[in-house]
Design a protein that fits this description.
The complex is a heterodimer of chains A (327) and B (346). Chain A has 327 residues and is of the alpha/beta class. Chain A is built from ten helices and 14 strands. In chain A, the strands form two sheets. An eight-stranded mixed sheet of chain A has the order 6-14-13-8-9-10-11-7. Chain A has a six-stranded mixed sheet with strand order 2-1-3-4-5-12, sandwiched between helices. In chain B, the strands form two sheets. Chain B has an eight-stranded mixed sheet. The chains are: A alpha/beta (327), B alpha/beta (346).
């Protein structure tokens, strides 16, 4: 296995892996960003977790409102800290995205969290949290659907399998990205190549929000994956340009593009697509890369551990996991 | 409230800081009648041909001549031609000895894409007036920080839409006296309430420092890159257009986490057109939190003066903010005073 080179604050390459989840384990449901759409959605999320065989504990702020956030910073922080530092709670699930987790980063007690690493899973705005915990604690965190996005049997099974099995995650391939589509399970590959490195990334908007802060991931020698949702192409080009200008893109081993749901050029046909805008840079840097992986926020999104070694083949559109994600 | 050191001492202190981490301040030659302006498009081309016709008119009215970049009307996605072509126009304007000032036709998207291949030495060798806003912030800040040149935050040249804007263009660029106290535009309709008022106090206090800032989206885009904004000891001015309050929260929180606001001298937030909840028409997360609420929450407790509403940004009325010159900000219950203490041109 190639050596891991990503740097975190607390370890010199040694990754803190959590314990796998077992039936009956208590798990916390939190909203570090915005609250879910309705009490029915939250109740369904509780049911999802129960059906997975875990004992759900709902954070006190999970259905509060404070503007665009679920409760005040203090309330959201209290829930998060309580679950992350309570020995009897084995996992933490984010219920929904939105905005707000960035505000909590300077106030988290990373030392205490690192003392007992546990499963934390989420996406969208919660990418801030996943990447900050990885950077500051050296923890493996899980990029997977927020619970309010677990709406199909497929995503339910995929999430459960990753969190309850000790073996390496089975290979992720673009060819399995679709079920009923015709001729759409193939990679669009700006640069063909094979590369290994630690898997890092998530929501592009969130990743760029960490740039210049002490919570930004070090993307050197990483296999970077990116996704986003409801964003204009020209804005996504801005953020990708930041990665390029900062030198972070050049430092990666490869880039895997996931889902960009409802992203586009405002219905305009004479604007460039992200495949063109991003592909331009990737070709210039000869960076193995492809579009079309099922990583993002759709009902067919895979759950993947951040920080573990992977082998990425951009020509085939496959992501192979070279190590386990549990202790 | 701590008492301010005398002006010359503050200046000396800021200069010592500047020598340590930045090049020496360079002021461009004043714009005289008969001078030539280069109209270029480092970001997006003009909306329509009429925009540039209008630009020719007002430049002529001020007694200025103009040259138009070869690629101003080119198209590459939403940019005015490829990075290479836009860069070619940009470099040509700086090296053309006939050109005295460089005015981008508009913002849009694409300026930051030019930075890796931008010839900063060329700019340092031939200091000229360079003025724009919005996406052009992506050039104003890096050029000022790399070369020491005073660059100008003011409307791109197809956005001169009021006497107020023209007044400050002439006051800042066409004479060498300091601008002094920034005034408000005359009310267009005295019975129509304007929000934000031009001088809303978010946090009281007094500050003296060199100006730096621009459009928040661009400041965010530069964060974590070798061109990111340097704010220590500076009066930081910020504005944006059509962004939801939660997005501005995100940008301010990022600046806070990056340590960019803790040693700033003061903060001046501009008009922020169409930044009411729901105004962006995309990604509205809440309709209850106003921008003013976000500003009070994120910036109110920094211990430095913070004001909101001065007329610069994306509105019709815009005064000129020269990056690098000394300014004084005084925010109290009695009102807000912003004084540009130093001339921006020589």
């Amino acid at each position: 296995m190639p050596s891991r080179k990503t740097k975190t604050e607390t370890t010199t390459g040694k990754l803190l892996k959590p314990e796998l989840l077992k039936p009956g384990d208590a798990v916390g449901l939190v909203c570090p960003a915005s609250r879910p759409a309705s009490p029915a959605v939250l109740a369904r999320c509780v049911r999802v977790v129960t059906e997975m065989g875990f004992k759900p504990l709902v954070g006190e702020s999970a259905f509060k409102t404070c503007g665009y956030m679920a409760g005040t910073d203090e309330e959201r922080l209290r829930d998060l800290e309580r679950f992350l530092s309570d020995e009897s709670v084995r996992g933490v699930f984010c219920v929904s995205g939105g905005f707000g987790s960035l505000r909590l980063l300077p106030r988290l007690n990373y030392r205490r969290i690192a003392a007992s690493p546990k499963v934390i899973v989420g996406c969208d705005d919660n990418t801030h949290l996943l990447l900050a915990l990885h950077r500051r604690c050296g923890m493996v965190t899980f990029h997977g659907p927020n619970l309010d996005q677990v709406t199909t049997r497929y995503s339910f099974d995929r999430l459960k399998e990753v969190l309850t099995r000790k073996s390496n995650i089975k290979m992720l391939s673009v060819s399995e990205a679709t079920s009923e589509g015709v001729a759409d399970g193939f990679p669009y590959t700006p640069v063909s190549g094979i590369a290994s490195g630690a898997l890092l990334g998530g929501n592009l908007t969130a990743l760029v929000s960490l740039m210049g802060t002490p919570y930004a991931p070090d993307l050197s020698d990483a296999v970077l994956f990116l996704e986003d949702k409801n964003e204009r192409t020209d804005i996504l080009d801005r953020w990708f340009t930041t990665l390029y200008i900062s030198g972070q893109l050049a430092a990666t081993r490869a880039v895997a593009f996931g889902e960009f749901l409802n992203c586009g050029a405002r219905g305009s046909n004479d604007l460039l697509s992200i495949e063109e805008l991003f592909g331009d840079r990737l070709k210039q840097l000869s960076k193995p890369s492809c579009f079309g992986l099922s990583l993002g926020q759709s009902s067919r999104t895979a759950t993947v551990p951040l920080g573990v070694m992977v082998n990425f083949d951009s020509g085939k559109g496959t992501l192979e996991f070279l190590e386990g994600h549990f202790n | 409230m701590s008492t301010l050191p005398p002006a010359d001492e503050a200046l000396k202190k800021a200069d010592q800081k500047a020598v340590k981490c930045e090049p020496v301040l360079v002021k461009p030659p004043v714009l005289k009648k008969g001078a030539t302006v280069a109209i270029i498009a480092p970001s997006t081309p003009p909306f329509e041909p009429g925009d540039i016709e209008f630009t020719y008119k007002w430049l002529t009215k001020l007694g200025l001549k103009y040259k138009v970049g070869k690629h101003v009307f080119d198209r590459w996605g939403d940019c005015a031609g490829s990075d290479q072509n836009r860069l070619e126009d940009f470099h040509h304007a700086w090296s053309d000895p006939e050109v005295d000032a460089i005015l981008p036709i508009r913002g849009g998207n694409g300026s930051v894409r030019l930075l890796p291949a931008l010839d900063f030495d060329l700019i340092a060798r031939s200091p000229k007036i360079f003025m724009g806003y919005s996406d052009i912030t992506g050039l104003l800040i890096p050029i000022h920080q790399r070369t020491g040149l005073v660059t100008f935050h003011g409307p791109a040249c197809s956005f001169y839409k009021s006497g107020y804007t023209h007044h400050y263009f002439q006051k800042s660029l066409m004479q060498t006296k300091p601008v002094g106290y920034v005034t408000d535009p005359d009310p267009k309709e005295p019975w129509k309430p304007e929000y934000p008022s031009t001088r809303l106090v978010i946090a009281e206090g007094k500050a003296r420092g060199r100006l730096i800032g621009g459009c928040m989206t661009l400041i965010r885009q530069l964060n974590g890159t070798p061109f990111e904004i340097q704010t220590a000891g500076r009066i930081v001015f910020l504005e944006d257009v059509q962004e939801e309050p939660h997005n501005i929260d995100r940008m301010l929180t990022q600046l806070l986490l990056a340590g960019k606001l803790k040693d700033a001298a003061g903060i001046v937030v501009g008009e922020c057109v169409k930044c009411r909840p729901g105004d962006s028409g995309r990604n509205a997360l809440a309709l209850s939190y106003s921008l003013e609420h976000v500003l009070r929450d994120r910036l109110g407790g920094l211990g430095i003066p913070v004001v909101y509403g001065l007329r610069f940004g994306h509105g019709a009325e815009q005064f000129t903010l020269p990056l690098g010159v000394m300014a004084h900000l005084d925010a109290s219950a009695q009102g807000v005073r912003l004084k540009i203490e130093e001339s921006a041109t020589v």
